[in-house]
Amino acid sequence: MKKFLYLYFGGNPPKSAEEGKAVMADWMAYFGKMGDKIADGGAPIGPQKSVAGKHDVRVSGYSIVNAASLDEAVKLTDGHPHIKAGGSIEVCETMPIAM
User: Fold this and answer.
1) 98 lies in a domain?
2) pLDDT (tens digit, 0 to 9) for every residue of the chain, 99 residues total?
Protein backbone atom coordinates (compact mmCIF):
# COMPACT_ATOMS: atom_id res chain seq x y z
CA MET A 1 0.00 0.00 0.00
CA LYS A 2 1.30 3.46 -0.89
CA LYS A 3 0.88 6.67 1.10
CA PHE A 4 -0.60 9.85 -0.33
CA LEU A 5 -0.53 13.34 1.08
CA TYR A 6 -3.71 15.38 0.86
CA LEU A 7 -2.79 19.06 0.92
CA TYR A 8 -5.81 21.23 1.66
CA PHE A 9 -6.13 24.71 0.16
CA GLY A 10 -8.74 27.34 0.92
CA GLY A 11 -12.08 26.41 2.37
CA ASN A 12 -14.47 28.45 4.44
CA PRO A 13 -14.23 28.35 8.22
CA PRO A 14 -17.44 27.75 10.18
CA LYS A 15 -19.38 30.91 10.97
CA SER A 16 -20.68 29.75 14.34
CA ALA A 17 -20.04 27.17 17.04
CA GLU A 18 -23.07 25.21 15.82
CA GLU A 19 -21.74 25.20 12.26
CA GLY A 20 -18.32 24.17 13.62
CA LYS A 21 -19.88 21.13 15.30
CA ALA A 22 -21.59 20.18 12.03
CA VAL A 23 -18.31 20.53 10.12
CA MET A 24 -16.49 18.38 12.68
CA ALA A 25 -19.25 15.76 12.43
CA ASP A 26 -18.76 15.72 8.63
CA TRP A 27 -15.01 15.16 9.11
CA MET A 28 -15.55 12.37 11.65
CA ALA A 29 -18.09 10.68 9.34
CA TYR A 30 -15.62 10.92 6.45
CA PHE A 31 -12.77 9.48 8.57
CA GLY A 32 -15.12 6.72 9.77
CA LYS A 33 -15.99 5.83 6.17
CA MET A 34 -12.29 5.76 5.25
CA GLY A 35 -11.35 3.32 8.04
CA ASP A 36 -7.76 2.08 7.73
CA LYS A 37 -7.23 4.18 4.59
CA ILE A 38 -6.45 7.05 6.99
CA ALA A 39 -2.76 6.83 7.93
CA ASP A 40 -2.73 10.24 9.66
CA GLY A 41 -5.86 12.39 9.97
CA GLY A 42 -3.62 15.43 9.87
CA ALA A 43 -4.41 18.89 11.16
CA PRO A 44 -5.10 22.46 10.10
CA ILE A 45 -2.02 24.53 9.25
CA GLY A 46 -1.45 27.74 11.21
CA PRO A 47 0.81 30.70 10.51
CA GLN A 48 3.27 30.18 7.66
CA LYS A 49 6.40 31.84 6.29
CA SER A 50 8.00 31.12 2.94
CA VAL A 51 11.74 30.52 2.89
CA ALA A 52 13.78 31.12 -0.30
CA GLY A 53 10.76 32.13 -2.35
CA LYS A 54 7.21 33.39 -2.08
CA HIS A 55 4.17 31.21 -2.62
CA ASP A 56 0.87 32.69 -3.80
CA VAL A 57 -1.29 29.97 -2.25
CA ARG A 58 -1.24 28.89 1.36
CA VAL A 59 -1.84 25.35 2.58
CA SER A 60 -4.74 25.18 5.05
CA GLY A 61 -4.22 21.59 6.27
CA TYR A 62 -3.17 18.04 5.45
CA SER A 63 -3.99 14.35 5.84
CA ILE A 64 -2.13 11.18 4.83
CA VAL A 65 -4.04 8.28 3.29
CA ASN A 66 -3.23 4.73 2.26
CA ALA A 67 -4.19 3.72 -1.27
CA ALA A 68 -3.00 1.34 -3.98
CA SER A 69 -2.64 4.09 -6.62
CA LEU A 70 -2.93 7.81 -7.27
CA ASP A 71 -6.26 7.19 -9.00
CA GLU A 72 -7.60 5.41 -5.90
CA ALA A 73 -6.33 8.21 -3.63
CA VAL A 74 -8.13 10.75 -5.81
CA LYS A 75 -11.33 8.66 -5.80
CA LEU A 76 -11.19 8.59 -1.98
CA THR A 77 -11.77 12.38 -1.99
CA ASP A 78 -15.38 11.82 -3.18
CA GLY A 79 -17.62 13.45 -0.58
CA HIS A 80 -14.66 15.00 1.26
CA PRO A 81 -15.77 17.65 3.79
CA HIS A 82 -13.01 20.08 2.75
CA ILE A 83 -14.38 20.20 -0.78
CA LYS A 84 -17.88 20.64 0.66
CA ALA A 85 -16.50 23.69 2.54
CA GLY A 86 -15.34 25.29 -0.73
CA GLY A 87 -11.72 24.18 -0.57
CA SER A 88 -9.55 22.12 -2.89
CA ILE A 89 -7.23 19.17 -2.36
CA GLU A 90 -3.90 18.43 -4.00
CA VAL A 91 -3.25 14.66 -3.91
CA CYS A 92 0.48 13.81 -3.84
CA GLU A 93 2.09 10.38 -3.74
CA THR A 94 4.81 10.18 -1.10
CA MET A 95 7.95 8.45 -2.31
CA PRO A 96 9.95 6.14 -0.04
CA ILE A 97 13.63 6.90 0.41
CA ALA A 98 15.99 3.93 0.50
CA MET A 99 18.61 4.40 3.17
Assistant:
1) no
2) 999 999 999 988 889 999 999 999 999 999 999 999 999 999 999 888 888 877 777 899 999 999 999 999 999 999 999 999 999 999 999 998 998
Do residues 84 and 26 touch, judged by C-beta distance below 8 A? yes
The DSSP call for residue 47 is: -
> How many structural domains comprise the chain?
1
Other Cβ atoms closer than 10 A to 92 = 15
CA pair distance 26, 80, nearest whole angstrom: 8
The predicted model scores a pTM of 0.89
Q: Residue 61 is part of which domain span?
A: 2-93
Q: Is residue 45 in a domain? A: yes
